[in-house]
Write a structure and sequence with these properties.
By secondary structure, the chain is of the alpha+beta class. The protein is 47% helix and 19% strand. The chain folds into three domains: 230 residues, no CATH class; 81 residues, Signal transduction histidine kinase, dimerisation/phosphotransfer (DHp) domain (Helix Hairpins); 137 residues, Histidine kinase-like ATPase, C-terminal domain (Heat Shock Protein 90). The strands form three sheets. Strands 2-1-6-5-4-3 form a six-stranded antiparallel sheet. Strands 8-10-11-13-12 form a five-stranded mixed sheet. It has a two-stranded antiparallel ribbon with strand order 7-9. Helix 7 runs antiparallel to helix 9.
Length: 478
C-alpha cells in the first residue's frame, strides 16, 4: 500500500479524485437545498392562493357552510377566530399539525350577539370590514385527509369579516412533489457521483501516466548509466517543451559536465603521473650510481630533482584543493604590497602600484603573482612590468614582459593544465605546465578572472581582475 501511494501518479490521482469529490458534494448539496427551497416556495404560493380565495369569500359574507374552498381535494383548510377557536375545516380532514391548532371539528356556531364586534374593542392596527391582510405567514406540517397522511406547506391569511370579526384562514399545499423531486435528484447524485469520480480517477491516472512516462524513461536510463558507469550515454529528451523536457536537457547537460570532469580528472592523473615519472627516474638513477660509485654522486642534481618533486607535489595538492571547491580566506590583502614582495629579488622587474585591497587568501594570491612572474621571467628579454590599479569596482594587476608574446589562438590554451607552447623546451626550463592553470583557478575562486593578451612592448600581458574588498567589512587586515 505504501508503495502504491508513494508514486506521484497515485498521489495525483488520489488528490484529483478527492478534490472533485469535495466539489461534487458541495455542488450537490447546494443544488438540493436550492431545489427544495424553490419547490417549497412554489407550494407556499399555492397554499397562499387557496387561503386568499377562502378569505375573499369570508370578506364577502359567504356563510361557512357555503365556502367553496372547503371542498378542494388535497387542500386542507382551517378557519379560526381571534381566540383560536376552529370555526370551519375541510371535509374529510381527520388530523392536522403545524397550523397552530390541531382541531379538525368546528366548534358550535356562536349566537348573533357573539357574532357582533364592538367597534371600541378593535386595535388601532385592525383591518376594515371586508379587508384581507397583505401577505401571509408560512409553516410546515402534516394533514390526514380521508386516511392519507402527507406533508404540507401551510399559509395563514388574516381577514376582517363584517359579521364574525377577524378570522385566520390556514390552507395547505402538498409537498409530495418537493419530496419526489429532491429524492430523485439525490438518487441520481448517489448513482452519478461515484461513476463520475471513477471517470475522473481513470482519466487522471491515464493522463498522469502519459505525462510521467518520459520521467520513467529518464530514471531507467540514469539507472543504466549508474550501473554501466558509461558517462557517454544520455537520457532521452522528449519532443515537448514542458518541464519534463527541460529536466531531460538539464540532466544531459549535467552528464556532459560530469563526463568532461571525469575525463579532465583522468587526463590530470595521467599527466601528473607522467610529470612525476621523470624527476623520480632521474633521482633514482643518481642514487643508484651514487650507491655503486659514491665519487660520481651529483648532489646538486639530486637536490634539484628533489625540489622539482616537492614543487610539483605542492602544485598538485593545491589544484586538488581548488577542484574540491575550497573557498579562500576572507582577509584583506593589499595587492600593491603583495606585488612588491613578489618582485623583490627579481632582476629587470619594475612595480608601478597604488594601494588596492581585495578580500581573499594572501598565500594563494601571492602564489598567483609568483607564477605570473616566473612565467614572465622565462619569456622576457630584459624587462618585466607589474602594475596595480583600480578600475571601476575591481582591482587590476597586470604582468607584462617584452618577450615574443602569446599567439592569439593560444591565449586560452595556455591556462590548461600541463600545457607547454614550446614543445622543445625542457621540463627543467619550462616547469610542469601548472603555473598558469593554478593562477587562473585561484583567480576564479576569488571571484575574479585571469586573461592573456598583448603587452604594449610587444610581449605578453597577463591581467588579474579581482573585486575590491568591501569598505564596511570588518575582516582583519593581512
Amino acid at each position: 500500500m505504501s508503495r502504491l501511494f508513494g508514486s506521484v501518479r497515485s498521489r495525483a490521482t488520489l488528490g484529483a479524485t478527492l478534490v472533485v469529490a469535495v466539489a461534487l458534494v458541495a455542488a450537490g448539496t447546494a443544488l438540493l437545498l436550492s431545489l427544495r427551497a424553490n419547490l417549497t416556495g412554489e407550494a407556499g404560493t399555492r397554499a397562499e392562493r387557496s387561503a386568499q380565495a377562502v378569505a375573499s369569500e369570508l370578506a364577502a359574507r359567504t356563510p361557512l357552510d357555503k365556502l367553496s374552498g372547503l371542498d378542494a381535494e388535497d387542500t386542507p383548510v382551517q378557519i379560526v377566530d381571534e381566540d383560536g377557536v376552529l370555526l370551519a375545516a375541510s371535509e374529510d380532514l381527520e388530523r392536522i399539525s403545524g397550523t397552530g391548532t390541531s382541531e379538525v371539528t368546528p366548534a358550535p356556531a356562536p349566537s348573533d350577539e357573539d357574532d357582533r364586534d364592538d367597534p371600541d374593542d378593535r386595535d388601532d392596527d385592525s383591518l376594515d370590514p371586508g379587508e384581507i391582510a397583505p401577505g401571509a405567514s408560512y409553516t410546515n406540517g402534516t394533514a390526514t385527509i380521508d386516511g392519507d397522511t402527507e406533508d404540507y406547506r401551510f399559509a395563514a391569511v388574516e381577514v376582517e369579516t363584517p359579521d364574525r370579526g377577524r378570522l385566520t384562514v390556514h390552507a395547505g399545499a402538498p409537498l409530495a412533489a418537493e419530496h419526489s423531486a429532491v429524492g430523485t435528484a439525490l438518487t441520481a447524485m448517489l448513482i452519478g457521483f461515484p461513476l463520475l469520480l471513477g471517470v475522473v480517477a481513470a482519466v487522471t491516472w491515464l493522463v498522469t501516466g502519459r505525462a510521467l512516462r518520459p520521467v520513467e524513461g529518464i530514471r531507467r536510463e540514469m539507472a543504466a548509466i549508474t550501473a554501466s558507469e558509461d558517462l557517454r550515454r544520455r537520457v532521452p529528451e522528449p519532443a515537448t517543451h514542458d518541464e519534463v523536457a527541460r529536466l531531460a536537457r538539464t540532466t544531459n547537460a549535467t552528464l556532459a559536465a560530469l563526463e568532461a570532469s571525469v575525463e579532465r580528472q583522468r587526463a590530470f592523473v595521467a599527466d601528473a603521473s607522467h610529470e612525476l615519472r621523470s624527476p623520480i627516474a632521474s633521482l633514482r638513477t643518481q642514487l643508484e650510481v651514487a650507491a655503486a660509485h659514491p665519487e660520481l654522486l651529483d648532489l646538486d642534481g639530486a637536490v634539484e630533482d628533489t625540489v622539482r618533486l616537492q614543487n610539483l607535489a605542492a602544485d598538485l595538492l593545491l589544484l586538488a584543493r581548488l577542484d574540491t571547491g575550497e573557498r579562500p580566506a576572507g582577509t584583506r590583502v593589499d595587492l600593491a604590497a603583495l606585488a612588491r614582495e613578489a618582485a623583490a629579488g627579481r632582476e629587470g622587474v619594475t612595480v608601478e602600484a597604488e594601494p588596492v585591497e581585495v578580500s581573499g587568501s594572501r598565500g594563494q594570491l601571492s602564489r598567483v603573482l609568483g607564477n605570473l612572474l616566473d612565467n614572465a621571467e622565462r619569456h622576457a628579454r630584459e624587462r618585466i612590468t607589474v602594475t596595480v590599479r583600480r578600475e571601476g569596482g575591481a582591482a587590476v594587476v597586470g604582468v607584462a614582459d617584452d618577450g615574443e608574446g602569446v599567439a592569439e589562438a593560444d591565449r586560452e590554451r595556455i591556462f590548461e593544465r600541463f600545457v607547454r607552447l614550446d614543445a622543445a623546451r625542457s621540463r627543467d626550463d619550462g616547469g610542469a605546465g601548472l603555473g598558469l592553470a593554478i593562477a587562473r583557478d585561484v583567480a576564479v575562486r576569488h571571484g575574479g578572472t585571469l586573461t592573456a593578451g598583448a603587452a604594449p612592448a610587444g610581449g605578453a600581458l597577463f591581467e588579474l581582475r579581482l573585486p575590491l574588498a568591501g569598505a564596511d567589512r570588518g575582516t582583519p587586515r593581512a
